[in-house]
């Protein structure tokens, strides 16, 4: 939005702090001083940890500053209400489902122009796509959630709540379509390459039930591991924290600390 600019020419200068270009100054006389290439670059490099943002420093003329602010206490500036709302919204961490994680994991991605492949027919580089699919499923399905993310030189722990089912995890939507009757895989293959077929005797049961969860508490600097396990004899869930074992309700198994999930095929 436009900023008031009358009479501010000699009062202060606005400097972009932490920008890619040192000592980048914005002109208060511009009707829209934030419309600057340096601001665009800073927004792109703001990284994770909240909405895109920039930090601006106002450099006052000393005589003007002393005339306007009689004491250090008077220099304090109250944040606008929008700042509080933005901080509150960022503090409310979002959640997702395990099914959404698999959808993102197997999502088709567009290759960058630098990764173009040469078409064997027309010999022209083509910008293709890549897609990761699940071909077979094991008897024991171990899912490792990505809880740590590296941004520049720092690593942060991700505490997003991943909601996962305790019973009836259906992996069928995430398994690759193996082809038409007869074992032929859908798609075209080179004459020298035999079509892929699923292994003989591969089970078609895609339902899984959870039997254990490994939890991680803490951060990169220090943490602690606990576990939730389902007793195969009584069917109840228990919490294991070092030498302490106690029963837990099923509603307490899915938490933000879940790190590794252990599923077993239902009809194994």
Automatic annotation (TrEMBL):
PROSITE patterns noted in UniProt: USP_2, USP_3
Keyword Hydrolase found: yes
Catalytic activity: Thiol-dependent hydrolysis of ester, thioester, amide, peptide and isopeptide bonds formed by the C-terminal Gly of ubiquitin (a 76-residue protein attached to proteins as an intracellular targeting signal)
Gene Ontology molecular functions: cysteine-type deubiquitinase activity
Enzyme class: hydrolase
GO biological process, one term: protein deubiquitination
Organism domain of life: Eukaryota
Its EC number(s): 3.4.19.12
Domain USP: 1-266
InterPro entries, per database record: Papain-like_cys_pep_sf, Peptidase_C19_UCH, Ub_carboxyl-term_hydrolase, USP, USP_CS
One Pfam short name: UCH
Keywords annotated in UniProt: Hydrolase
Protein name: ubiquitinyl hydrolase 1
Lineage: Eukaryota, Metazoa, Chordata, Craniata, Vertebrata
């Amino acid at each position: 939005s436009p900023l008031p600019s009358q009479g501010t020419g000699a009062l202060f200068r606005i400097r972009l702090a932490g920008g890619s270009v040192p000592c980048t100054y914005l002109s208060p006389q511009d009707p829209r001083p934030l419309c600057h290439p340096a601001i665009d670059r800073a927004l792109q490099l703001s990284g994770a940890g909240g909405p895109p943002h920039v930090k601006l420093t106002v450099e006052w003329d000393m005589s003007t500053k002393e005339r306007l602010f009689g004491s250090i206490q008077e220099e304090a500036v109250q944040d606008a209400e929008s700042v509080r709302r933005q901080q509150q919204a960022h503090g409310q961490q979002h959640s997702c489902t395990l099914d959404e994680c698999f959808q993102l994991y197997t999502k088709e991605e567009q290759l960058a122009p630098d990764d173009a492949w040469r078409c064997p027919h027309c010999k022209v580089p083509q910008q293709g796509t890549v897609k990761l699919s699940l071909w077979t499923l094991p008897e024991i399905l171990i899912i490792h959630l990505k809880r740590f993310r590296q941004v520049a030189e720092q690593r942060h722990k991700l505490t997003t709540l991943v909601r996962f089912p305790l019973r009836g995890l259906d992996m069928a939507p995430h398994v690759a379509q193996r082809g038409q009757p007869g074992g032929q895989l859908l798609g075209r293959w080179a004459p020298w390459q035999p079509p892929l077929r699923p292994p003989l005797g591969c089970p078609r049961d895609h339902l899984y039930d959870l039997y254990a969860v490994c939890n991680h508490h803490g951060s990169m600097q220090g943490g602690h591991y606990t576990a939730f396990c389902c007793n195969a004899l009584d069917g109840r869930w228990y919490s294991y924290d070092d030498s302490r074992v106690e029963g837990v309700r099923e509603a307490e198994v899915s938490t933000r600390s879940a790190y590794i999930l252990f599923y077993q095929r239902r009809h194994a």
